[in-house]
Structures are given as structure tokens and as C-alpha cells.
Amino acid sequence: MSTQTTLLGPAGVTAADVLAVARGGSRVELSRAAVEAMEAGRRVVEELAGRPEPAYGVSTGFGALAVLHIGPDLRARLQRNIVRSHAAGMGPRVEREVVRALMFLRLKTLASGHTGVRPEVARAIAAVLNAGITPVVHEYGSLGCSGDLAPLSHCALTLLGEGEAEDAAGAVRPAGELLAAHGIAPLRLREKEGLALLNGTDGMLGMLLLACADLARLCTGADVSAALTLEALLGTDRVLARELNALRPHPGQAASAANMRLLLAGSGLTGHHQDAAPRVQDAYSVRCAPQVAGAVRDTLAHARAVADRELAAAVDNPVVVDGRVESNGNFHGAPVGYVLDFLAIAAADLASIAERRTDRLLDRHRSHGLPPFLAADPGVDSGLMIAQYTQAALVSELKRLAAPASVDSIPSSAMQEDHVSMGWSAARKLRRAVECLTRVLAVEVCAASRALRLREEAAAGAGLRMGPAARAVVEAAEAAGVRGPGEDRFLAPDLAAAEAFVSGGGLIAAAESAAGPLA
Q: For this UniProt entry, which segments traverse the membrane (predicted)?
């Protein structure tokens, strides 16, 4: 585990805090202010529990069973039972970073004091996170309304010492054994506490924050791959001029165009579009690269604004506010679900334009002098022909993943919960979309790098040399296992190396080593 510590107060957390805990293994500590806020909220719940009138989540059943009054002697059982019964997920296990993110985000809401739980509950979650214990959470079980119920229930079950969890080394063991091994006592829940552990949009928000971090890197990576392709096609960089892009003042477009100008500085290949095969202007997939990548950047900015508002929220039902307990609908996942779907659309289009650029590099009728499929001996060799097939398959998958989940709703809980967000489903498919986009850009990097090497070989002595940034990327990619031109070989390892080069930050690091910082 990390030696970094994230201090959690009642006012919320940042996206960087979530990433530090989810991916970096940062330890979590509760501030004194957070403990005091929880103690104040708990006093309100305990006072309410002593009254004869029913209060949802305190002295009633849940969902459609909220009409049933629960006496004081059964309330601890009520809270334990909601955790057990709601831990009903099915399917593959959810990734460790996602589970850690959703647990930390639930802890963030508890620390606000608005949920009315005892500080002991929050301390238990922090202890589990700090021990590197990760509950086994399954793919299916959340409708994105009334919280990510099944996923959060599986996490709460671990706090009770029940169910299964993964230790820091990745081995799955009974949760009770793991708690005992780390000296963590199983929780004994009291009024409202079981409900408070389940009733949040933490899973979908956690996945949104993780995806935003990944997509920010991929937007910059797409600028790099687009610049490589423009250079390999002898395209013009004049369309990237600051004054031209200022005519349409979208901030994302300006950032992408600025990146590409830096990346193409000093190139001896750009501007030769009117030489051997004259053309007045480049194809849309090359010329409009900043417009498309820029629109993705602006969509990402909107998603981050929504995420920041959610990070400042206390999502639970009912909530403690101004000394009273009130029911509300803040657990509905629509705000998060919409932007998750929006990002999946943007990712699909960014992949689509990258695939069109790759296809142009491979087609001898449109590549302006490059060999068919960038093959060493076309006919005997197929070059990167099937790499583009793989890329096309990924783009097709991205188009399916772009179909929005948030327009769907299926009623549950005997029609009490008659409109749901499906935000969890939107988040799950966005994670797959991010993976597909990474692979699409990896194929473009493979093709553009090979094309640049071939372009220089063909123009030996003519001064047509790639720029410093392109050279840094091509050399770094080759060092990472993305081999250059040559006769046909087993290609999958090259593509895997390119994927790691893109996802691991090598692509951007190489470009920035020559071009300077990129947006």
C-alpha cells in the first residue's frame, strides 16, 4: 500500500483524492471535523429513533416495504438484513480500482454528517481500505437509482465480516478471516446505518472519475497520433494556425490545434501535399482532427464539472439536514448517467476518425506514395492490412457501446422505484469504450510510425525528414516493442506493445520530450 495519506473532512473530496485511493493505494484518515459532523448527525437519528412515529430507514422497512413499522427490538436486525438481502450481485467481478473508488466515495458521504451514522461505521470503511481489503463486487445488480445497491451491499457485507473479499495480494478469502487478520472488528449496525451504506451513486461516480482521467490522456494521445499521420501523409499544417482556429472559439479545439502545432514543428515532411500527387487540401480525417478531438475535450470538461458537483454532494435517503431527517431523491443517477453516455459517444467518434486516418495510410491510392498496407513486398507481404481490420472491429464495438444506457428505465420494488437511471450500466460500458479507444489509437501509432520510417527511406537524401517530436515518438515506440518496417511477422505482440505504450503514458512522454508540455 502507498505511504500517502488522504485526509477526509466533511466538505467533500477532489478527483485527485479518489484517484489516489483507488489507483494509488493512498491511506485514508478521518479529520476531527468529520468525526464531529457524524456525531452531530447521529444525535438527530437517535432522537428520532426514540419517537413513536415511523421514520423511513430508522423504524420502517425499505422500498415498497416502507409502510411496515419496525419496533426497537428488531431494528439492528433490520439494518443487517438489508445488507444481506441486497448483496445480490451476479456476473464477473468488478475491478479492484472501481471497488476502492466506490468505498471511498461512500465514506466521503458518511463523513459529511448528513447520513446520521456513527463515526465507528466510517472508521471501519477506512480500516478496510487501509488494509488493502477489497470486497468481491459483481458486474450486475445496480439500476443506478436508490444507489448502486448491490455493489455497495457487497462492500457493506465485508464490514459485517460476511461474504468474500480480496486481500492485498489478490487472493479471495472469507471476509471474516481478512478482518480478523488485520484486527478489524466486524460492524454491528444500528438504526439507519445499513441503509446509509447502500444508498449512493458512488460506483458510477467512481467509474466516471477514473474514465475522465483516462480520457484526458487519450485526448492528448490522439493529438499525437493525428500529428504523426498528417506528417506521414505529407499533409499541410497550415490548417492548425492559431488565427484559423480562433475563428471557431471552442477551447478544446484550440488546445488540440496547439498540441499539433508543437508536435509538427521542425518537420521536413509537412507541406509537400502538392508535390507528387497534388491536392489542394487534406481529407477531413486529417484536416479536422483538432475539431473532433477538441469536441471530445470539451465534452470531457462538461463531464468533469458534473463529477465535481457530485464530489461536493452528500447522496443518501433520508438525510440529516438542519437538525431534522428528510426524505429526498438525490440518489437518482441521471446527472452522472447522462455524462457517462456522452463520453462513450465522444470516445466512439475519436476512435472513428483515427481509424479513417489509419486506413488512409494503408491505401496506396490515398497515401501519396507509401506502399500498399505499408508492406515490405506487397503481395508476398500483407503488412498492416489486418491490423486495420482489428481497428475497424474495435470502432464497430465502440459504436455499439455509444448507445445510451440512460434512456432506458425498468421499474423495480413493486413500482415504488418506477424510474431508474441505469447509470451503473453506462459506467460499465464506458470503461470498455476507454479500452477500445486505447487500442484504436495504438494501431494508428503502429501504422504512422511505420509510414514515417518508410517515408524517410524512400526520400533518402532529399531532406524529407520527420520532425523532432515524431522522431522521439517513433524511436520510443520501437524501443517499447513496436517494430518498424520489414517483412511480415507475428503482429499481435507489436499491437500489444503499442497498446501498453499508449495506455502507460509512453506515447505522451516521448512526444513531450521533444515538443515540450502538451495540453
A: none
